[in-house]
Amino acid sequence: MKVTFFGGAEEVGRSCILISSGNSNILLDAGVKLGKVVEHPSITKQVLDKVDAIFVSHAHMDHVGYLPHLYSMGYRGKIYATKPTLELTNVLISDYMRISDPKAITKDGLTRMQKSYKIVEFREKIKVKDFTVSFSPSGHIVGASMITVDDGKNRLVYAGDVNLAKTRLLNGADIRNLNADALITESTYGGRKDIFPSESIVVNKALQSIRDTIKRGGKVIIPSFAVGRAQEVLFLLDDYMNSGVIPKVKIYVDGMINKANRIYRHNVIYCREELQKRILMSDYDPFRSPNFFPIESKTERSKVAASRESCIIVTTGGMLSGGPVLYYLSKLGTNQANKMILVGYQGANTPGRQLQDGAKEIEVEGKKIKVTLRIETYHLSAHADRRQLETFVSRIKGLKTVLVVHGEPGKLSEFSEDLAKKYRAIIPRIGIEYTI
């Protein structure tokens, strides 16, 4: 079995991996890397023509954003993924088309992509020539999967993005009975110091910060990825507002989060059993909480920004590279009574990382935005930390080779150095073929 990386190696973003064995070729993920310039995988038309099928781990743009490009290049094979992954992919791609207007994507390509979807259930086995492929829950977002590829001689597990911890919506990754010769693992938080404090400590500090801002009459802006992190943040806020821990103010929900919430609600069977029972057996549906106020237009957005009310705004633009968060920042960013709370990963060189590192001005789409409101970070990640990653790797029986991807250089190095004490550990490079 051979593995070639066209993206996601030595970086976070544009994940795209070719798995080959004999006359069989499959692609794992096809994402883009968002930033000042959108970066694409380096896969060529010549390679793409040999691909038999595409398997998608989960619906985040760094894993699905390049799919319509592939079909616009003429690809006609199937895309295999779970139902929520495919539904969320449609929403993400639609938003990507609206905001970025990528010229390389054709209407025919977009139509072919959507007609090529094949829904896969967890643990179902899919046969593609020499390969048998199966999915299991990765705990990252709804429908997110680890993908196992077996060619009869070797077995590979692709982690995608993984989280072992139970959250308000999801169970952690199912790492029972995993066995493989090789593993491709993320290392987003693979550094030796990437040990997350307990959630209770983080949440209590975040709630105290929100209480203080509301008491001052300020607004709390929480930028978030529309899929996964936003739902966890909203559920947390709703629970603690209902219990009186934070004051009753309006929680405005802006951007694609509202569409993602509906897809989560329709796919609640993929969420924790406790959440399913909560919706089916009580009168309270947390996806439709009376504390949430969806923003449906620019007019509503401007009214919220101009109002004197204290409120919480949960909005898309997790790394501040785009989305409604930039509007709120431009209108509210110089009022020191307000606060921005970062809850997720901030990629290198993104405006979010710049603010996290203390910048008082950011440039987005050629416009400079001054920022003097307080910026705070409370880590509520959907990724495994270093300890979880170590546990994950150690639970895979028969493992010999670990390919470490989806991480910044320092984290890749530290994680692979420590893995090398027990395994053949590789930090792959773009375009290089590896044999496992």
Helix count equals 14
User: According to CATH, what is the topology of the largest domain?
Assistant: Metallo-beta-lactamase, Chain A
Number of strands: 22
Please outline the major beta sheet. 7 strands, mixed
Overall mean pLDDT:
93
Low-confidence stretches: none
What is the CATH H-level superfamily of the largest domain? Ribonuclease Z/Hydroxyacylglutathione hydrolase-like
How big a fraction of the residues is strand? 15-25%
> For the largest beta sheet, what order do the strands appear in spatially?
6-5-4-3-2-1-22
Helix content: 25-40%
Which CATH class of the largest domain? Alpha Beta
Could you say how many structural domains there are in total? 2
User: What class would the helix/strand composition place it in?
Assistant: alpha/beta
CATH architectural label of the largest domain: 4-Layer Sandwich
Oligomer state equals single chain
Cα distance spanning the termini:
6 Å
Overall shape: globular
Give a structural overview.
With 436 residues, the chain is of the alpha/beta class. It folds into 2 domains: 2-193 and 382-435, Ribonuclease Z/Hydroxyacylglutathione hydrolase-like (Metallo-beta-lactamase, Chain A); 199-377, 3-Layer(aba) Sandwich (Rossmann fold), CATH 3.40.50.10890. Helix content is 31%, strand content 23%. The protein is built from 14 helices and 22 strands. It has a 7-stranded mixed beta sheet with strand order 6-5-4-3-2-1-22. Helix 4 runs antiparallel to helix 8. The radius of gyration is 21 Å and the shape is globular.
